[in-house]
Design goal:
There is one protein chain. By secondary structure, the protein is mainly alpha-helical. 54% of the residues lie in helices and 8% in strands. The protein is built from 5 helices and 4 strands; from the N terminus they run ββββααααα. The protein has helices at 36-43, 48-64, 84-107, 111-123, 134-167, and strands spanning 2-6, 16-17, 20-21, 23-27. α3 packs across α5 (134-167).
Length: 179
């Protein structure tokens, strides 16, 4: 990443060369974000399927997080006008995501399994940041794998359920009436 700063003299004024201010440009390496899920995948600690389930969980956890304010659901115009249709859709999507997160939490065998899943797949924390030491890291990796398996089951069941609702024959509302 290139960053620039105007060169200044001892008085704080801009240094000029040929009437133009002088810009000092430096190339700086940006520290890459350490993502626990990606690191585990790169190291071969989790499989392709587990990585995909973790990525789906990441999206789900982000959708389920409440916004800072309700204006986050608006159109961002700032004129006091808010598209209530858009806001209702966004609130419904966040509610559906939160319900799926709750189903995943209930499917996990214990609270710690879900906590590790939420930390690594949800927030991107590393396994090491959850506790260092051989048995702690190994236990957390086992919990993460179990949580990812539960999340995959819940997400697959939800996908099948939604697909079944879309494929169900439409009734005319008179199903209980004999003709």
């Amino acid at each position: 990443v290139d960053i620039g700063e105007w060169r200044r003299n001892e008085d704080g004024g801009l240094v000029r060369r040929g009437g133009l201010p002088v810009l000092d440009v430096q190339t700086v390496r940006r520290a890459s974000r350490i993502d626990g899920l990606a690191s585990l995948y790169k190291a071969g600690a989790i499989t392709d399927g587990e990585k995909q389930a973790g990525d789906a969980c990441r999206v789900l956890f982000e959708q389920a997080r409440p916004p800072v304010s309700t204006s986050a659901y608006g159109d961002g115009g700032g004129g006091g006008h808010c598209d209530t249709g858009h806001m209702l859709v966004a609130v419904a999507e966040a509610g559906n995501a939160a319900a799926l997160v709750d189903r995943i939490a209930r499917a996990c065998s214990d609270v710690r399994t879900f906590a590790v899943l939420e930390a690594v797949a949800g927030r991107g924390a590393s396994i090491r940041s959850l506790g260092d030491g051989g048995t702690v890291k190994a236990g957390n990796l086992t919990r993460l794998k179990a949580g990812l398996a539960m999340a995959k089951q819940v997400l697959d069941a939800d996908r099948a359920e939604r697909k079944g609702r879309l494929m169900a024959p439409k009734s005319n509302g008179l199903a209980n009436q004999a003709r």
